[in-house]
């Protein structure tokens, strides 16, 4: 998901959530206020009608008791009262005893002078109940008797006798339990209504008075409000989408431009010169920072290029104390300068050592020619000049020539044994060591474990192994005071191993100044891609050298 879509989703989701919460809160608050107002108004109407009815009945009762009429003021053909009712003083509900079940309320008074009975003019109560001011189109107030049957005319069923309408609603049940309240529940028609109720008790008369109005009528403003809120919500949401699109365009376009620039820089091109729209202070600062980064990288790249070309005198200054790249490049340059200087010193030292080695070798060769071949040639010259005829002397001359040839052959083998090419390193070392044993008192043991017939040791490796062995033996003879030398040359499938041991005084490999011989040994091992392990303990000096077999 790209950042534009993400911003649109987040912003519009938040806006939609806020609008929905505000709309729901407003709707809920308006609904609660409307409910309270309706129920409060209905309660006022119900209370007024209840007071009017109670006052009317009490006034009529007082006049009835004050009258001197002791005859029954009723039609006995339509109203049949039981004796239990006739013997009970007070206001009574005669509806159940009416032949046609018309709502009838009457007064009964018993005294020594006789029994007075009067039917109350119910039209007076009817007028009070039919007064519908403030009750809208569906509002009504009505009475319900103890038998849960209606005692007043229903405005919804004008042709029905009230007594035939059964009213067992929540309000009626609560009122007969002595509770006065209000709420929203279904009425006798099964329709949701706002209702307030209370119990009227006057003497023997008990009726519930209810004032109600249909929920559908009351909620018309709520429905209109809901429609308006939905329309307003959609309008605000569409406006929010448009604004968020505009906002994301302002934010995203610079980010896309920066992304494009960074991709170009990631590809190694730091010389791009694209100009981008900077529509805010923050975005301008962001692109300025990108430009500074680009300039810093350009400087670093140029400096790196100069270092790559070994232009180590190029000037470069890090952008700040936190410029790790710049510091690293400077450290690299300093290391290269140091390496170049060391390399130059090493090169000069190597040349010096090479020259010294050549001079030493020439000096040794000169000494051996002078001390070895020279006397033989001098003696031979003496015999020739004196034209020796004696056979004994001629035999001595022949021996001198043979010794001269042997000495020259020995010197030649020391310089480059011809047997390496003919017989391999194993036999060459055997011959070399056998010849050394004749001229030294040190015990030298040599074990040849090379593969004579199918050896994979190259001529290059053989020459270096021979020179390494020469150097090791020469160091032992000159410096170690050793009494025993042991050498093993082994050939395996993947490498050739040279093991060298002497029981001399040893040396400290960490502090001793290594001579030309040890340096030559290490260099020869290195050029053959081999490894060397040195242990220079007194009485147990060892060199373990391994060269890989080159198949």
UniProtKB/TrEMBL annotation:
Q: Domain of life here?
A: Bacteria
Enzyme class name: transferase
Ranges that cross the membrane: 6-27, 229-252
**PROSITE patterns this protein is in?**
HAMP, HIS_KIN
List localization entries: Membrane
Is the Nucleotide-binding keyword given for this protein? Answer: yes
Q: What is this protein called?
A: histidine kinase
- Recite the lineage of the species: Bacteria, Pseudomonadati, Bacteroidota, Flavobacteriia, Flavobacteriales
Record flagged with keyword Hydrolase: no
Reaction(s) catalysed by this chain, per the record, are:
ATP + protein L-histidine = ADP + protein N-phospho-L-histidine
* The organism of origin for this protein: Flavobacterium magnesitis
Family matches, as Gene3D superfamilies = 1.20.5.1930, 6.10.340.10, Histidine kinase-like ATPase, C-terminal domain
Its keywords, alphabetically, are: ATP-binding, Kinase, Membrane, Nucleotide-binding, Phosphoprotein, Transferase, Transmembrane, Transmembrane helix, Two-component regulatory system
Tell me the Pfam families matching this sequence: HATPase_c, HisKA_3
Domain (Histidine kinase): residue spans on this chain: 364-551
Please tell me where this protein is predominantly located. membrane
Gene Ontology MF, one:
kinase activity
EC number, UniProt record? 2.7.13.3
Q: Which residues form the HAMP domain?
A: 249-302
Mind telling me which InterPro entries this protein's record contains? HAMP_dom (IPR003660), HATPase_C_sf (IPR036890), HATPase_dom (IPR003594), His_kinase_dom (IPR005467), Sensor_HK_TwoCompSys (IPR050482), Sig_transdc_His_kin_sub3_dim/P (IPR011712)
């Amino acid at each position: 998901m790209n950042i534009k879509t993400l911003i649109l989703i987040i912003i519009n989701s938040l806006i939609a959530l806020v609008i929905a919460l505000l709309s729901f809160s407003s709707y809920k608050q308006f609904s609660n206020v409307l409910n309270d107002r309706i129920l409060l108004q209905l309660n006022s109407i119900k209370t007024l009608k209840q007071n009017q009815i109670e006052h009317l009945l009490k006034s009529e009762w007082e006049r009835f008791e004050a009258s001197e009429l002791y005859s029954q003021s009723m039609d006995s053909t339509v109203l049949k009262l039981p004796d239990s009712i006739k013997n009970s003083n007070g206001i009574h509900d005669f509806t159940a005893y009416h032949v046609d079940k018309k709502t009838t309320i009457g007064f009964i008074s018993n005294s020594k002078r006789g029994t007075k009975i009067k039917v109350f003019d119910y039209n007076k109560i009817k007028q009070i109940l039919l007064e519908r001011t403030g009750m809208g189109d569906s509002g009504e107030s009505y009475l319900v008797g103890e038998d849960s049957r209606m005692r007043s005319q229903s405005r919804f069923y004008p042709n029905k006798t009230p007594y035939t309408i059964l009213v067992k609603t929540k309000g009626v049940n609560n009122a007969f339990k002595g509770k006065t309240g209000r709420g929203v529940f279904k009425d006798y028609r099964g329709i949701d209504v706002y209702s307030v109720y209370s119990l009227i008790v006057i003497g023997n008369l008990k009726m519930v008075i209810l004032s109600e109005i249909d929920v559908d009528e009351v909620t018309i403003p709520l429905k209109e409000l809901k429609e308006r809120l939905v329309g307003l919500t959609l309008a605000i949401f569409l406006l929010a989408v448009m604004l968020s699109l505009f906002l994301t365009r302002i934010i995203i376009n610079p980010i896309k431009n920066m992304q494009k620039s960074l991709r170009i820089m990631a590809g190694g091109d730091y010389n791009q010169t694209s100009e981008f729209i900077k529509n805010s202070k923050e975005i301008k600062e962001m692109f300025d920072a990108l430009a500074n980064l680009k300039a810093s990288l350009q400087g670093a790249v140029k400096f790196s290029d100069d270092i790559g070309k070994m232009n180590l005198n190029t000037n470069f200054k890090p952008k700040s104390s936190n410029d790790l790249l710049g510091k690293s490049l400077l450290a690299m340059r300093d290391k290269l300068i140091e390496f170049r200087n060391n390399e130059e010193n090493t090169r000069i030292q190597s040349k010096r050592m090479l020259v010294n080695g050549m001079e030493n070798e020439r000096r040794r060769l000169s000494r051996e020619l002078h001390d070895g071949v020279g006397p033989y040639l001098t003696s031979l010259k003496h015999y020739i000049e004196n034209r020796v005829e004696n056979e004994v002397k001629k035999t001595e001359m022949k021996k001198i020539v043979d010794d001269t040839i042997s000495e020259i052959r020995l010197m030649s083998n020391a310089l480059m044994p011809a047997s390496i090419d003919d017989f391999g390193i194993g036999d060459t070392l055997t011959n070399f060591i056998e010849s050394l044993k004749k001229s030294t008192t040190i015990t030298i043991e040599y074990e040849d474990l090379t593969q004579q017939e199918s050896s994979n040791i190259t001529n290059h490796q053989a020459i270096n192994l021979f020179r390494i062995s020469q150097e090791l033996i020469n160091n032992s003879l000159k410096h170690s005071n050793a009494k025993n030398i042991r050498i093993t040359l082994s050939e395996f499938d993947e490498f050739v191993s040279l093991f060298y041991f002497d029981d001399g005084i040893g040396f400290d490999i960490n502090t001793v100044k290594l001579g030309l011989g040890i340096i030559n040994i290490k260099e020869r091992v290195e050029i053959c891609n081999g490894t060397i392990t040195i242990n220079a303990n007194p009485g147990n000096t060892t060199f373990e050298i391994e060269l890989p077999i080159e198949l």
